[in-house]
Amino acid sequence: MGEKKEPEKGKTRPRSAVVLAGGKGRRMGVVEKALLEFEGKTILERLLESLFQVVDDIVLSVRDKTQEQMFKPVIEKFHSSEIRFCFDTLEDAGPLEGIRAGLLESRSEYSFVCAGDMPFVNSRVVDFLFEKTSAHDAALPRWEDGKFEPLHAVYSRKLIPEIEKIFEKGRRSVLTPVFEMQDVVFVEVSEIQKLDPELRTFANINKAEDLESMIRSAVEKTNMK
Length: 225
Fold this sequence. Notes:
By secondary structure, the protein is an alpha/beta fold. It has a single domain (16-224), classed as Spore Coat Polysaccharide Biosynthesis Protein SpsA, Chain A (Alpha-Beta Complex), CATH 3.90.550. It is 35% helix and 18% strand. The chain has helices at 43-51, 65-75, 95-105, 123-133, 159-168, 175-180, 189-192, 208-224, and strands spanning 16-20, 37-38, 41-42, 57-62, 83-87, 110-115, 138-142, 152-156, 184-188. Helix 3 (95-105) runs antiparallel to helix 5 (159-168).
């Protein structure tokens, strides 16, 4: 378990992932959502296993040293040299500061960024987004209604100065610095659906009901077999 697969043929440049795990899960009574268990594994463990199929290293963006220690038992199941922690330097700056800190810590020019409460991130979709980003600044999934998935996207390090610029203006929206970049590729969700028909790659846990729904769905599929 946790062993990294060989890079896919054709993958020449290094790839990283930044996992935003610093949220306090207030909607669920202030719990560590990444440590919730689903089908015998924590959400974080499932996520790391999937990401290591297509990236070389992972940066976990966390709140503080206390949270880092809470995640250590999960991290120990993987090659520790390939997982590093980073911490916010700006308080109350939301996920945007987590992205900035993660990209600064990343060893690669390009990083896949996602939230730490996403148990079904699809490695094939992540690989597809990396391919779409080739020679561009970012690849951002876009839904039919024009909405975006900024926390399930690939960004180059060019996003760092754009984030810093909007911080100087007192703004915190994740999409603002992305749209300031010069060369962003918008990937239609309909394309992603060819790789992940149910689009479970975008699913996240905001409330206890979300996790319960996923468990029910898994049980139903098992019973249908």
